[in-house]
Amino acid sequence: MYVRVEAEVRPTEDPEKVKKAVLNVFKGAVNIVENQRGFLVVFGESYTAESLRKVYELIRIQRIMDAARKSLRKGLTKDTLVFKLHKQAAYAGKLSFIDSDIESPLGPIVFYVESADIMRVIDWLAPKTNMGKPLWEIDMPKD
After folding, report:
1. Which helix (H) or strand (E) element contains residue 134?
2. CA torsion 47→32→91→136, rounded to 10°?
3. Count of CB atoms within 10 A of residue 15's CB?
4. 112 falls in which pLDDT band (50, 70, 90)?
């Protein structure tokens, strides 16, 4: 498994605040780097699903499994999952999935997840529910 997270730092933003927003939803080390276009970007990567633990926990705390599952499935391809989170909500410790960059005026936090069994990742993060209760809970993916 490979997980990459990135969030562009806009000129009006404090890089440390953007870093805090990313760390509120990503479990792992992040760095502030300059991209090819000369903008600062908060960037992190991991090779374990543990880096998604904060997303997993916030989905449950906020009780948004159905909405999260729907959003995650929209970003699904063969073996890759891409999803975007509202940066300001993440700074406040909340999870808010977005479909378009314009939904987060200061830009989104973008996750790229690659796995041989990407549906297992979605099933772990946000299982199907019935009346708001998960139909299953599976162990964290290991690959």
Report:
1. strand 133-134
2. -10
3. 12
4. very high
